[in-house]
């Protein structure tokens, strides 16, 4: 009985961690996407401002930047 309670608690923690990671990713993606959209009107390359954003397309570069940024959070 106690083992079932421990397993249930671990599953809840994993689920909460997954939700937290997704929320952080979405927030970081929005921030990086707004930065990259803003810098599209500037004559400079925005990908040098964000770590890990070496992609040519805006969405792929933003995703790479977010993953690069999130690696610093661990």
Automatic annotation (TrEMBL):
<protein>
    <submittedName>
        <fullName>Uncharacterized protein</fullName>
    </submittedName>
</protein>
<keyword id="KW-0812">Transmembrane</keyword>
<keyword id="KW-1133">Transmembrane helix</keyword>
<keyword id="KW-0472">Membrane</keyword>
<feature type="transmembrane region" description="Helical">
    <location>
        <begin position="21"/>
        <end position="42"/>
    </location>
</feature>
């Amino acid at each position: 009985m106690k083992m079932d309670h421990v397993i249930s608690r671990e599953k809840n923690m994993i689920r909460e961690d997954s939700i937290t990671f997704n929320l952080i990713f979405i927030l970081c993606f929005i921030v990086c996407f707004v930065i990259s959209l803003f810098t599209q009107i500037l004559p400079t390359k925005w990908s040098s401002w964000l770590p890990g954003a070496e992609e040519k397309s805006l969405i792929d570069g933003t995703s790479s930047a977010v993953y690069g940024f999130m690696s610093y959070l661990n």
